[in-house]
Amino acid sequence: MNWNELATQLFPEGHAITESDNFLSGSARVAGADIAVLGTTGHAPIGVEIALAQARFVLHTVRAHPGRPILMMVDTQGQRLRHRDEMLGINSYMAHLGKCVDLARRSGHRIVGLVYDQALSGGFITSGMMADACYALPDATIRVMGLPAMARITKVPEERLTELAQSNPVFAPGPENYARMGGIEAIWDGDLAASLAAAFADAGATDMRSARGLERGGRKLTQPVVDAIVAGSHVLAP
């Protein structure tokens, strides 16, 4: 979906979002309150410039608008695969962005992510996956790694991975599978403005992804491992 069309549905009370080189930033009204909006469009590759622009916007919001909710609109093909970006340390730039988002959360900003088109690899990890909760539209494309690339790296035949993807959401792309794993809180199909308002009302700093994955049967061991670690830390505490 084109981001302009999406904004019309998300923000019937109005918005002031602008696009510059596939970087989205601005503000909007949701349920009578102002929110900050940032994101990407055009399947943007996340290079050092966009990573810094997003981090700068988040820090400005924390300084200038304490407590203002933040919406991250996601459409990215992942980190930009260029020698220049690698030599400049794109991993550090993306880590900086993630730290800025975490600072905003610790400073009292509710943060919601929305995958409205494409979300791949590291570009998704440092955007929607850093939010308090991430949502998706039904036609969104979500994956950390395509099966052909996964086959090359793991040395598992692609045919076997395709077979596994039929029953195991860890191997399968798409918003439905990420919802089963808890990475996506819900898929929005209906009144988007109402869904967004409800998402901000429900947003909290507690990470519920492991619990959701267990409840939905997509990740059955993560939450038990977390619980065991927490229980062990209590036993070992002086």
TrEMBL record:
SUPFAM superfamilies in alphabetical order? ClpP/crotonase
Q: Which UniProt keywords apply?
A: Lyase
GO molecular function terms noted in the UniProt entry: lyase activity
EC numbers on record:
4.1.1.88
One GO BP: carbohydrate metabolic process
Pfam families xrefs: MdcE (PF06833)
Q: Can you say what this protein is called?
A: Biotin-independent malonate decarboxylase subunit gamma
Annotated source species: Massilia atriviolacea
